[in-house]
Amino acid sequence: MKTIQIRQEDLQPGQKYAPAWWLIDAKGQNLGRLATNIADLLRGKHKPIFTEHLDTGDFVVVINAEQVVLPGKKTKDKYYYHHTGYPGGVKAVQAEKMLERKPTEVLRLAVKGMLPKNALNRKALIKLKLYAGTEHPHEAQQPKPYTPKYSS
User: How deeply is 84 buried, as exposed, middle or buried, from its count of CB atoms within 10 A (0-12, 13-18, 19+)?
Assistant: First the structure.
């Protein structure tokens, strides 16, 4: 049996290995376990044609991102840091406040940390579509429901 060598042209829409669309409901899901499943889908590690140097991943639509669960006391103890660019400009935001203000940002940062730190990271994050509520504008793509491997 020959080994299949995938090219970028084979991954374009309409081709044999075109990316699929998945719909994940984050309601009541553990943040870390959910982010791991999403990162695997975005990279394409669930496919037999996975190639490290190509973007073989699928599109992922996540609904109810505001209802994701942080286990233990992480809502109080976890902080998200960023720097303003000015001297002494380190800012910290508690996870609880981040979930109130920007509920999708918590999940986006968790998934971003699980992707490789290169150009494929930026391509994969474009394929991630996060929504705080149940409504999303991607019905035309007919996303298939996905149940995470490690659901809580």
Answer: exposed
114-117: long-range contacts (C-beta < 8 A, 24 or more apart)? 114/35, 114/36, 114/39, 115/39, 115/42, 115/43, 116/43
The string of pLDDT tens digits covering residues 43-56 is: 999 998 999 999 99
Quote the pTM value: 0.92
Question: What is d(CA 27, CA 67) in angstroms, rounded to the nearest whole number?
Answer: 5
Question: Are the CB atoms for 128 and 37 separated by under 8 Å?
Answer: no
Give the chain's count of helices (H) and strands (E).
5, 6
Contact 62, 125 (CB under 8 A): no
Q: What is the pLDDT of residues 115-132, one digit of tens each?
A: 999 999 999 999 999 999
Return the residue matching tokens 């902080």.
79
DSSP state of 110: H
DSSP state of 27: T
